Amino acid sequence: MWGLIKRFFHRNRLMHRLPKMRGRVAKDEPMAKKTWFGVGGAAEIYVEPADAADLSHLIKTLPDEPLTVLGAGSNVLILDGGIPGITVHLGKPFSYVRVKGNKLTCGAGATLREVAKTAEKHKITGLEFLSGIPGSVGGAVRMNAGAFKQSLSDRMVALTAMTGNGDISEIDPKEMNIFEYRKCYLPDDWIFLEVVLEGKRVRDASVIRDKMAEYKKKRESTQPQGVRTAGSTFKNPDGLMAWKLIDKAKLRGTRVGGAVVSDKHANFLINDKGATADDIEMLGEKIREKVHREQGVKLEWEVKKLGVRK
Ligand SMILES: Cc1cc2nc3c(=O)[nH]c(=O)nc-3n(C[C@H](O)[C@H](O)[C@H](O)COP(=O)(O)OP(=O)(O)OC[C@H]3O[C@@H](n4cnc5c(N)ncnc54)[C@H](O)[C@@H]3O)c2cc1C
């Protein structure tokens, strides 16, 4: 009860300290529907900035307030106690893909599907692997998303970010060693605004379409479809496959509350019966414990946990 009262006062104080913004601001915004897992509590303050200047103004006015970024919510587990402080989502104003030659300038809010489709339309090959990853560009930079032995960083020739001080930073990713498998070394409080991706022009878009169709087929044959999941739960440890380790531990079908390990892909956790974030987290920890005990490998969460427990 005391916790609730404290949070109520904190939220109201924070609301009063917020600068006047041109974008959307809401308090106690439910987050579950904004994520693929469909679980988790509310964001104390939720902001969709109108543009980069609006976001910068927010950061500069409240430099010490914790700030969380949510993309398309396809790789996060928002915990049941919700997200304290400010949650930022880069929405429509950041959702663009512009083409010049063989390069695509993509706003952080654009979906990877839009990027791949635009590349196809302009006969640019090399970005087909993005078509089946259900995230936004900003989330994909943070995760260095990838598939079929390719990663976003392989195609990235420029990156624009907002630093934790609210300043714009232009980065040449080829000059700096900032990415590795599912990891970006830029500071956690940086917000990615835009990337430039480079592909190769081809004469005939059918090669691109064929590649996308092949990737789609592979995904459909190995991954559960139309379910509440965040994709691969754990990173592949060096030289190993997480799903094989989980399989060897005979954990397919294992359940905690409303959360279950997929029968089709052992590294996918599914919310199939009204799971809480707690159910999903406990199921993940159960897997980590058994795999470590039996096979001596420590699995690392690929899914990002945001917010606090209840
Ligand atoms: C069915 C399914 C299949 C998937 N397949 C793949 C796959 O093949 N390969 C793969 O790599 N991933 C896969 N994923 C995971 C996910 O789609 C990717 O990690 C994706 O890049 C996450 O993007 P997002 O916008 O959803 O980010 P979110 O899930 O919203 O956020 C992920 C992280 O990025 C941060 N973030 C989001 N936006 C920004 C920003 N603008 N600036 C800074 N930080 C930001 C968040 O704070 C969080 O830490 C899959 C997920 C699902 C559900």
Commentary on this structure:
By secondary structure, the chain is of the alpha+beta class. Helices cover 29% and strands 25% of the residues. The protein folds into three domains: 2-92, Uridine Diphospho-n-acetylenolpyruvylglucosamine Reductase, domain 2, CATH 3.30.43.10; 94-220, Uridine Diphospho-n-acetylenolpyruvylglucosamine Reductase, domain 3; 225-306, Alpha-Beta Complex (Uridine Diphospho-n-acetylenolpyruvylglucosamine Reductase, domain 1). The strands form seven sheets. It has a five-stranded antiparallel sheet. Strands 1-2-5-3 form a four-stranded mixed sheet, covered by helices on one side. The mean pLDDT is 97.
